Amino acid sequence: MLKTRTLLLAVAAALAASTTFAAAQDKARVAFVPQIVGIPYFDAMQQGGEQAAKKLGVEFVYQGPVDTNPVDQLQIVQNLINQGVEAISVSVLDASSLAPVVEAAKAKDIKLFTSDSDAPDSGRALYVAQASDQGLGYTIIDEMVKRAGEDAKIGIVSGEATASNLNAWIGYMQERVKEKYPNVTLLDPQFAGGSAERAAQIAGDMMASNPDLKGIIAVASTTCPGVAQAIETAGKIGAVVGTGYCSPNTARAYLKSGAFGYSVLWDPSELGYLTVWAGKQLIDGKTIPAETTPEGMSHPVTYDDKTGILLLGDPAVFTADNVDDFNF
Amino acid sequence: MSSRTSLTLPILAGLWILIVAGLAILQPSAMALSTVTTVLQFSTLLALVSLGQAMVILGGGAGIDLSVGGTVSLVAIIAMLLDTAGVPSFLLPVVCLVAGTLLGLVNGILVTRLRLLPLIATLGTFYVYSGTALAITGGSAIGGAPAYLLPWGRGTLAGFPLPFVTLVLPLFVLAVLLLRYTAWGRWIYAFGFNERSARLVGIPVDRARFIAYGFSGLMAGLAALVSLAWLGSARPNIGQNLELTSLTAVMLGGVAIFGGRGGLVGVLAAVLLLVTLQTGLLQLNVNTIWQVGIIGALLILVLLVDNIRMIRRTA
Fold it and tell me: Which of A125, A166, A273, B154 has the greatest number of C-beta atoms within 10 Å?
């Protein structure tokens, strides 16, 4: 009992002392909350964010959940708000997951915005988009048809069934096929969660049950290795064209082996850079022009004032020929 | 059993004070009312589910409920589907309670009637429940929770989230009283501790255990209701990981995994400790991957301290 009391006293003393040296932040802080930490894609965004922070004179905070769990993500965002971080960007796991904290952020005059994955109706300040969802969905289908033919049967292996960005891309793939390639058969998407093994299993089953399958699209970057390995182990290189939204480093081996015909993506480190730049503009209260080349970037980006979408640019297509020009 | 509880609580309280003191020194700005609100807000779902989990585990017979997370997800989805299908909104809380209880009773039937091992039975229903929730929604959230729920789900009373004040605290008090003063509560401890003798003296073990699984489902249903009122939408994966975190809280709270020993106050203390620790580490911007490891180490440490004491005592 006595011990507890001394401890309580110590805490009280610590509390009293703490108020006297309240931390003074000299630099504005821009935070980015990814969907999950520890995967190369978000690591690259983190690197880009750090570069931008150095260049633009802000402090960069990178904090994300270890599972793709919306409540864990919400908890992280809530704590950043409590800390009073001036601008907070989130790669939203679930389109409605920001709702409870948007008001709290506004009350503290914190700029809450989305990057990489959006929550359109949440009241977020703006959305930093990697490439338009439409551009990504259309490009991957167009490139696939070029390789697999106008009457191909194509399968889709996605990641989390709840990820709004992945679902949007799939939607545009389906739209493109319906409008432009009436003879292409697009199978219903299968969901592998965050695991490459599950993706391999799904892709393997897909090829077994559809002997006439001509192509498989890996939607989440985590599903790329699984799909490629399934094509390799099934001995279907050349017969089935694999592809996905994955980085050159992830796809390199498969592009060279022929399991993947191509890969579609953008540069996530550039996206991280643009995210921190956008946070800085919001903190400074600057309006973003319709087209501008941010300090430290090599190409212009576009901003749509009406939708609040800041677009990084057109998606890039990586093939065996150009993959070695990239390193991310 | 009371001597065990009385040691768990001081350990947890000591650790909690240590964490708060550490946070006060390293990140003084965290010492704000908003931090208290955040901790309690993120404790609510876990506390409710852990309460149900604790009941099931206390009841022994290798009792465990791995389906709690899936139950929370599925109940939230069912309630919102019925709501959008035209069932009057004021019935939504009732739907949550009934659906949760029924899903819990399914576990009860599997365990007490069909004699499946609880670990296997509830692992099965975990996959069925969470899989069904994902399948019927195609993975997307269902928005548009009734507006009358939101002021309760998001509101605070002097910094304390309303769901915590109006649901978690009363329910824990009620459950403690239930365990202490009703026949059913005493039976739980009795057959949790020694099932054979309990059966010999004529305690209706199966019926009481059946109710315990129903109670766990009811708590999960309440957690689903809180999630709807708080987030404003039903998520097919809202309950993700709750089965493991609730187990952690129950173990950390001093409930013996084989049942029959431990108390509910310890479980609530453990929930608060876990969420405070998470919040503290987040405020310090500690990498979340480390956080998982730290929580694991904490669990082992606390159980180890407890074990050493037990060994000393018997030696």
Answer: A273
